[in-house]
Structures are given as C-alpha cells and as structure tokens.
Design brief:
binds zinc ion, 8 helices, 245 residues, alpha/beta, 6-stranded mixed sheet
Length: 245
C-alpha cells in the first residue's frame, strides 16, 4: 500500500494544499494523519474538511484538537497556543467539532502503530531524544511506530545490545529501507515545522516495498501569515512559521 503520512497540520491550509499538490504524483492509496489538525493556524474548518475528504484516510486526534474540544486543560499550553485554542473553539463548526471528537489518539495498521505523541502516552508525551524513545519501544508490539507532536522529523532505532537507542536526522536524498530493526519515525509537521526549516514536512510510505521517504516542500508562508494577522493571532505565532521554530 502506498501511503501519504502527514501530521501537525495546525490549520495551515496553504501548507496542506502545497503538500497535497506535491504528493499528487505519488499515486498514494491511503493517508495517515497523526493528529493536531487545528491550533496555531488560521484555517481550521477548511483543513478538517480537506483532510476528511482524502482517500483511505486514517486520522488521529492530537493534544491541540483535544484542547479545542475542552477535553484537555488549556492551562497546560503556553499563552500563545492557548489564545489560538480559544480562537479555534469559537471558529469551528459543530460538524467539524463532532469530527474531531470522533477521532482516537492511537491506532494500529498492519506493521505500524500510529500515535499522535508517543505509544506510551499518545496525547501528551514528547519524544524529544533517544532516551525517551528508548523507553517507548516497550509500549508497542508492531515493528514500526509513527508519531508526530514534536514537529521535528527524526528516526529512532530500537535499542541495540548496549540497551541504547540511536537517533538519525532525515535524509531527503535517500529512501529509508524498513527492514529488520524496529523504528519510531516522525514525519515532521506540515503546518508548523520546528527544525529551523520553514518548509512543510511530510513523508511517503510504501508498505509493500517497505520504504520510507522524507519529503519537504516550500509553501507560501506569507499567505498564512496574512491570514493569521487578519484574525489577530499573537505575533509570535505569526513570526515563528517563517523560521521553523
Ligand atoms: Zn502539534
């Protein structure tokens, strides 16, 4: 199966549309979306409706989605994120609220466990380093686990004989073969990358050929920024997407 893997769109429609246009030639049959459809960005309804219509969709719920639904305490978020959550709550249609409410934070498809944050704590835990990754390998049974949430594309290899886990930054020129070793893989974020690189991040997965391909595409950041300023979003949120932090 040919799968488009996307995560952390965060209501950035410009980034989402650019990713979908870039991915059109990949002839994907399914889309796995790892959550956080909304929060931070100015086009939550449009992003939910666009994602819902994608073929073969499996979509998870993320912590920002949960906060908008009032299923997670907004005080756990920083000031700017909280402002965006309140704005989003007021903007979402009842139908799109109901759609978010229908989503789970964890799923399993064949050899792949899908979690928004981590297999150990699918809503909230950040897999920020190889030590946290190491502990998470005990919390899923499949060969591979796909996670979002940190907005940083990365691959963690299962602990070796020394009990330590290794970490690898994405290689955009080479596909990653999914053979043998168990992996935790993060595709990065479509709508708010945080690896000092503003281009939208996503991945292509072929479960039959067993390959993973990291992809990056530049989108019109200034168009999203204009939409954010028109909606009076905190300026820090507007600025950060231009720098990828
Ligand atoms: Zn996120």
């Amino acid at each position: 199966m040919r799968v488009l893997v996307i995560s952390d769109i965060h209501a950035n429609l410009e980034a989402l549309e650019t990713v979908l246009a870039d991915a059109a030639s990949l002839n994907y049959e399914a889309v796995w979306c790892l959550g956080d459809l909304v929060g931070y960005g100015p086009r939550p309804n449009e992003c939910i409706e666009r994602v819902q219509a994608l073929r073969g969709l499996v979509c998870l719920v993320g912590n920002h989605d949960k906060a908008v639904l009032d299923e997670l305490d907004v005080n756990a978020f920083n000031h700017d994120a909280r402002a965006a959550i309140h704005w989003t709550r007021a903007a979402l249609t009842p139908a799109n609220m109901a759609y978010l409410r229908s989503l789970k934070p964890l799923d399993e498809i064949g050899d792949f466990t899908l979690a928004h944050a981590s297999p150990r704590q699918p809503i909230w835990e950040y897999i920020l380093n190889r030590y946290i990754a190491r502990d998470n390998f005990a919390y899923f049974d499949t060969p591979f686990c796909l996670v979002g949430h940190t907005h940083v594309p990365v691959v963690y290899h299962a602990p070796g004989a020394d009990g330590e886990c290794s970490e690898r930054a994405p290689d955009y020129d080479q596909v990653l073969g999914l053979n043998g070793q168990r992996l935790i893989i993060n595709p990065g974020s479509v709508g708010q990358p945080r690896d000092s690189h503003p281009d939208a991040a996503y991945a292509f997965l072929d479960t039959t050929q067993r390959i993973w391909e990291y992809r990056r595409v530049a989108y019109d950041v200034s168009a999203t920024q204009r939409q954010m300023r028109a909606a009076e979003f905190p300026e820090r949120l507007v600025i950060r997407i231009a720098y990828g932090w």
